[in-house]
Amino acid sequence: MRQIRQAVGNNVVDPKLLTYAEKLQYEGYLRRQETNEAIQKLAKSGTSIRQIVRQTGHSRKLVRDVLRGQRLDFFRTRPSILDSWLPWLNERWEAGSRNALALWREMRAEGFVGQRGIVAQWAQRRRLAEQAGQSGLMRTPSARVLARLMTSAQDGLGTSEAILVAVIENNVPELVAARKAIGEFQSMIRSKSAAKLDEWIELTRGSLVASFVNGVEKDLIAVRNAIISPWSNGQTEGQITRLKLIKRQMYGRAKLDLLRARVVGA
């Protein structure tokens, strides 16, 4: 994630595109950056940690974290309840629906529980972005959002999402290779062919999915059989889930005879 934050977080944030609350957050980020740079400058000049603490007034822990590279700070707007609605909002915006109140009402009808002000802030940011000739504020995505963007078809992405993916692909080629590796593994599962499994393991051993590859290799026989076999343990897992549900309904008070009666009679 550090490489992604560096790719997305640097030279992307334009204060003109920020709402008032985000500007306050951005100012705090700039202050932290100044603190980090001041501490690093003193350390490079040969100043000891004790002297840096005295001169700057910061705690010893903070100074040590900065010098050890454990306080890398990248500006990102906070996760919002609106995040899961962004594809829908972008689609409606591109279709010409630019009234924040009308958008909020449509979202409420579809189950959105947030306040009108959240949608109004998003609409304000979109207008500012268009005035600045940009597609929107890029912020460092969460791992979950990143996984969705990187595995989605390009045709299904909004303009700002497509630009974000392009930035990441250009700056983090290892992530593109990892996406390709996962895609190839999924293709083997869908085609029920394990002929290229050994070759796939060798080629992806040093990639970002190395831990996953190691797990596959440790249980290679089971994985190979799972790919080529028509059988599934879905029925077993479903019955286990059913038993757990029945026991929860009885607050855990389920001896074997009572549990058997409930299962048979259900």
From TrEMBL:
Domain of life: Bacteria
Xref: Pfam families: DDE_Tnp_ISL3 (PF01610)
Domain annotation Transposase IS204/IS1001/IS1096/IS1165 DDE: ranges: 170-263
Name of this chain's protein: Transposase IS204/IS1001/IS1096/IS1165 DDE domain-containing protein
Originating species: Croceicoccus mobilis
